[in-house]
Amino acid sequence: MDSVPRLTSVFTLLFSGLWHLGLTATNYNCDDPLASLLSPMAFSSSSDLTGTHSPAQLNRRVGTGGWSPADSNAQQWLQMDLGNRVEITAVATQGRYGSSDWVTSYSLMFSDTGRNWKQYKQEDSIWTFAGNMNADSVMHHKLLHSVRARFVRFVPLEWNPSGKIGMRVEVYGCSYNDSKLRLSSSPPSATLGSLLDDQHWHSVLIERVGKQVNFTVDKHTQHFRTKGEADALDIDYELSFGGIPVPGKPGTFLKKNFHGCIENLYYNGVNIIDLAKRRKHQIYTVGNVTFSCSEPQIVPITFVNSSSSYLLLPGTPQIDGVSVSFQFRTWNKDGLLLSTELSEGSGTLLLSLEGGTLRLVIQKVTERAAEILTGGNLHDGLWHSVSITARRNRITLTLDNKAAFPTQDTSRVQIYSGNSYYFGGCPDNLTDSQCLNPIKAFQGCMRLIFIDNQPKDLISVQQGSLGNFSDLHIDLCSIKDRCLPNYCEHGGSCSQSWTTFYCNCSDTGYTGATCHNSIYEQSCEVYRHQGNTAGFFYIDSDGSGPLAPLQVYCNITEDKIWTSVQHNNTELTHVRGTDPENPYTMTLDYGSSMEQLEAVIDGSEHCEQEVAYHCRKSRLLNTPDGTPFTWWIGRSNERHPYWGGVPPGVQQCDCGLDESCLDIQHFCNCDADKDEWTNDTGFLSFKDHLPVTQIVITDTNRSNSEAAWRIGPLRCYGDRHFWNAVSFYTEASYLHFPTFHAEFSADISFFFKTTALSGVFLENLGIKDFIRLEISSPSEITFAIDVGNGPVELVVQSPSLLNDNQWHYVRAERNLKETSLQVDSLPRMTKETSEEGHFRLQLNSQLFVGGTSSRQKGFLGCIRSLHLNGQKLDLEERAKVTSGVRPGCPGHCSSYGSICHNGGQCVEKHSGYFCDCTNSPYEGPFCKKEVSAVFESGTSVTYMFQEPYPVTKNISLSSSAIYADAAPSKENIAFSFVTAQAPSLLLYINSSSQDFLAVLLCKNGSLQVRYQLSKGEIHVFTIDVENFANRRMHRLKINREGRELTIQMDQQLRLSYNFSPEVEFRAIRSLTLGKVTENLGLDTEVAKANAMGFIGCLSSVQYNHIAPLKAALRHATIAPVTIQGTLTESSCGSIVNSDVNAVTTVHSSSDPFGKTDEKEPLTNAVRSDSAIIGGVIAVVIFIIFSIIGIMTRFLYQHKQSHRTNQMKEKEYPENLDSSFRNDIDLQNTVSECKREYFI
User: Laminin G domain: from which residue to which, for each copy (predicted)?
Assistant: First the structure.
């Protein structure tokens, strides 16, 4: 070993490039909390409610919970001393904890000396800051201009009128160096190491090659690159170790000189210590430097157990006063540091760590306790020194050389030392008077313990000759920094206790014990599979991998799922005045990294970007062999001189390929160089060149020369991995892949389906370690893993069989915190990972999928969408060259067919499935989107039953044809409606033999279903539970199966009826929605309802397997449907949700819910002309006589019908379901409609 110099100066190494001088410290990250670490003595105020100064740090809950003045008025202020002049960039406030006291506005003042204050101004006026609305929320303000000061004063201006002034405050900033020179930007730096003050040697290695720097501390390495343009390091002519000999040099750290030992100090192979020992002229020393390491040997102890560790040391009893001091370090916020029973009835002394704050309490039975609170964040793992002195009625608690005193009057307190001092905890066999521990025991390290100013020999404790102890490590501090390295992934912040670490994943986009799992799906295809429709989504293409989530627009249609990534310039952009020497260049920003975009593109089946070049005397590509005038840059920063619609390597436009350009001599329309506007537009679709990152235009500088360009968003469809599946059909078959490297975190997810009893999904072996996933029985999935501490096995048992030939989902994960297994939506099984022992998963064999290396227990069935740590394995490609395994796996609809709703049919594709909505009245990717339209007065949609016809394109005739039954034995009718018009005719079906079915609204708003079947008898069913012309959405379902009829209204069964055996609906001729325009000899009541037809909105109309409204709106040219009047597609739901009062009340063709206001006076209706009055009277008399005649005839016909059908009416109630007999009124009287059955 080389000689060891003992230094009392800072050991400093700084690498930087060429940095310019002149800017201020605001270029640094300057947002550290400054007040949270202050002692209570740093706070002062104009007055205090308690009579003494109250600490008022943000989020403080102990003591008074903040500051409140004795009187709440405009002369009050709260002040803090930050100890040194600092740069202040932000402030924050809260109200006083657990009170109704808070400040609603305040101003700030600053000072360097505590005198000569300066008010904070913004926009050249004294600034008022908005305060709080309650006692707990934090109001944070970033200062527009940072302020340099030592003292900060908060001046309340307004406060809660129902309470008093109350504040807890924080100041944010950083240390300020008042040197006149500053670096213009922060040199690249790295921070490594923790707990380096443990009296052990630590190694440091810095290596640089060009701009690449490797920084290693104790085997932990961090890599970074230097800034600047040059690779050479232009450093000072001298290197300083242990300190900076010349104050004020650029890069000088605001740190004390290094105090300790350094050995084996080399710079580029030169032994610096050897040169110093030999007093070479290149070396000079400043201060106390010796060539030996004689650091004092300090004996630390470790309190291991939070429930049973303690140290008992004796003291000298009955001394007037107490004196105890020691140092401690810990990661725990809470723990007992010291407890002792004082002599002469002085009470009990208790020193504890509570929430990271030091709390001293001296409690007598009959008197008020003396309490001191000081410090904060004392669970930071650093050494902190504590000293307690109590003499002559004065109690002092000193923390890190800062003294604190009780807030209470202690003039009457007499304290005498005890004879037993318990550090860290209490033995189980003691009473509270002997050792009191209101919280858990201390876990951490202590050293340098002094009692009554005498050091305690901890080696003697270890030897049993002094005191007593339990669960201690003596002569060892076993503190461990569990956050170095930081195992919280994806930017998760790490915190720790003595035994474990915790990850805060807030705002990372990831979740889990180590922030490993993305909260977003990997593609739009997955969102669609979950039942989502179009919208903006975040996708994480590599799942738990390093790439961040990316916001995209998922356009989920019936046949494709498009993923669109927008950039910053999708509008048409005009360009003038450019030439090859002065080109126009525009760079496109997609708001993401190129790696993210490449992952989206590579994971898609097809990608494209539309490019459009509009030109007038502006050439585009010139000739196939010439220098192009315009080009674009792709993903690899390569220049591409081809345009949309053309494959790579062909310097042409789309029109050049099919020889349709304006000038046949050119290969682009714009290359014809015409003095008129034209364009070349097409799609770029070669994935390896996408996305477009830049466009360059050089030919718009001539007379009348002008161009305009537009590049659309990146659009992709087809997920290459979600449906990537293989079928294993022999037990000896498997797929093999490279070794799965996942030392600290491993996640495996996939889908499977099988009929086998058992089989191994996946296996990877190491020398001792292994990982295995298998179906161990028809209802069990087992995940087994061994990282060197013995196998850990998780089993999920399913209440139903998993070998049911349906797709099931499995996800297994192992990290440093836990091992877990999830199957479908069953409860997740977890086991905590041991904090001790081996933790690296080290595998070295190939990864076997679908089998094992022994070719036993192979899996029979299908595996799909296999992901390992976010990486997607291409199973199908590997299966193409593997025997016993086939690419693909049919049968998706058996598992996912239920995602197609409302009669939609699941149709298999090679990669997945889609919903065929041909025979559904709905549409959309899941047949859930309503197809609806607004009917006006006179609007009619008539569907004629005739020869079969295809209703959609690209669907085979057999699957899409619609046939008319000659004599259908059933009707399955369903539709929704919204209207304010009554009477109305909603639906009418007639046959060639004058049978009909009509659905109408009577004048009173009741709904009526009228059947005429077989022998001419009319059956009328009326539902009058409410007025259905009430501008609300109603859903009607009519189902007749042979003799049985049921009617549902708004999801409730309203009627069940059995027709006579001979009832039959003969051949149907047409179905009409709205007004019947043909002369069909309508029934009288139907004719009344038909007078206005239907005014309102109809939605999702279905008759058996026919969707007449959908046919009219989507397939009017090929379907046997006739539309008369105005039919406007619209959403009935949106009409219902619109403001009813906003709908005009004057009936017109533009208002589907229009109605005349009977109270509105008739304009110009007053006439004095007697001839006009007489004419009106004559007309009224004529109408009255006509009505009387019609009623007489109607009553006579009804009487005859009553005689004929009297026996049938007596039998009719017996045909009804018993549950509805009491709900149906079988009256023989007639109101406004013919003989009816009321519900």
Answer: 81-293, 300-477, 724-889, 933-1132
| Contact in structure between 287 and 9 (CB atoms under 8 Å) | yes
| Nearest CA among 411, 444, 257 for reference residue 338 | 444
Alpha-carbon gap, residue 224 to 211, rounded angstroms: 8
Confidence at 182, pLDDT banded by 50, 70, 90: very low
Residue 813: other Cβ atoms inside 10 A = 25
Q: Is the model's pLDDT at 93 over the cut of 90?
A: yes
What is the distance between the alpha carbons of residues 327 and 198, in angstroms, rounded to a whole number? 13
Residue 21's alpha-carbon distances to 25, 1058, 1189, in angstroms, are: 11, 97, 109
Coil/strand/helix, residue 97? coil
Q: How would you label 1098-1117 residue by residue, b for 16+ Cβ within 10 Å and e otherwise?
A: bbbbbbbebbbbbbbbbbee
3-class state of residue 310 by DSSP: strand
Query: Which positions ≥6 away from 1024 have C-beta within 8 Å?
Result: 1004, 1005, 1006, 1007, 1238, 1239
Is the N-terminal amide bond of 691 cis, ω within 30° of 0? yes
What count of other Cβ atoms lies within 10 Å of the Cβ of residue 454?
11
Residue of 680, 675, 619 lying closest to 645 (CA atoms)? 680
Look at phi and psi of residue 895 and say left if phi exceeds 0, alpha if psi is from -120 to 50, else beta: alpha
Distance CA 524, CA 90 (A): 41
Q: How confident is the model at residue 180 (pLDDT cuts 50, 70, 90)?
A: very low
Extract the tokens encoding 208: 């640089």
- What are 1116's two structure tokens? 């009017």
Q: How far apart are CA 1005 and CA 217, in angstroms?
A: 85
Contact indicator for 172, 107 with CB cutoff of 8 Å? no
Higher pLDDT residue, 285 or 612? Answer: 612
- Listed in sequence order, the residues at least 6 apart from 657 whose beta carbon sits closer than 8 Å to its beta carbon are 645, 646, 650
Note whether 517 and 536 are within 8 A (CB). Answer: no
Q: Are 192 and 81 in contact (CB under 8 A)?
A: no
Residues 540, 545, 546, 550: what is their CA dihedral angle, to the nearest 10 degrees? 0
Mean pLDDT of 1018-1044: 88
Instruction: Give strand ranges (E) for 249-304.
Output: 259-261, 266-267, 270-271, 301-303
Q: State the CB neighbour count (10 A cutoff) for residue 1219.
A: 9
Residue 1055 zone, left/alpha/beta (φ > 0; ψ -120 to 50; rest):
beta
pLDDT at 10 over 80: no
Q: Is 482 helix (H, G, I), strand (E, B) or coil?
A: coil
pLDDT at position 604: 92
Residue found under tokens 């998780």: 794
Query: How far is Cα 1028 from Cα 1007, in angstroms, rounded to an integer?
Result: 7
Q: Are 1075 and 1087 in contact (CB under 8 A)?
A: no
CA atoms within 13 A on the CB side of 300: 19
| Tally of residues, the chain | 1239
What pLDDT score was predicted for residue 147?
A: 85
The answer to whether residues 1118 and 954 touch, using CB atoms and an 8 Å cutoff, is no
